Amino acid sequence: MTQWIDAVALDEIDDEDVMRFDHGGRTFAIYRVDDEVFASDGLCTHEQVHLGDGLVMGHVIECPKHNGRFDIRDGRPLGAPVCVKLATYPAKVEDGRILIEISGKL
Questions:
Q1: pTM for this one?
Q2: Using CA atoms, how far apart are residues 72 and 37, in angstroms rounded to an integer?
Q3: How far apart are CA 93 and CA 34, in angstroms?
C-alpha cells in the first residue's frame, strides 16, 4: 500500500535548497529545484552526515563534510569520497505541501 507522508510546506524551501525532515525514527532530505521536488535519505552514505546541511547546485547535493556529491533525482554518487548510492523516494506537491512516498522502503 502506498503511504504518502506530509513533509513540509513548499514555500518553506527555497529554490535550489534542501531541508531535513525526520519521520518514524529516520531522517530524510527534501529538495526543491526549479519548482520540482525530490526526496532522499537524509544521511550521506559515506559518513552519515546530515545532507540537510549540504549545498544544492542544480540536481546535485553536496555533503557538508567531505564534499561528496549525489544526483538528487536518482541518488547515484557523482565522485569520491561517496561510492554508495543514496536511497531516493517519490515526492509530489499537493495543496502547497510536499509529500513523500516511503512505503516499501522502511
A1: 0.92
A2: 10
A3: 13
What is the C-alpha to C-alpha distance for residues 102 and 106, in angstroms, rounded to an integer? Answer: 7
Domain boundaries, given as residue ranges, for the chain: 4-101
pLDDT at 105: 52
Residue 37 has pLDDT above 50, yes or no: yes
pLDDT (0 to 100) of residue 106: 46
Superfamily of structural domain 4-101:
Rieske [2Fe-2S] iron-sulphur domain (2.102.10.10)
Measured distance CA(25)–CA(51) in Å, rounded = 16
Nearest to 17 by CA among 4, 29, 27: 29
Q: Which residues are registered as beta bridge partners of 62?
A: 55, 69
Say if residue 48's pLDDT is above 70: yes
Of 70, 81, 79, 78, residue with least CA distance to 31: 70
The C-alpha cell that represents 21 in the structure block: 525532515
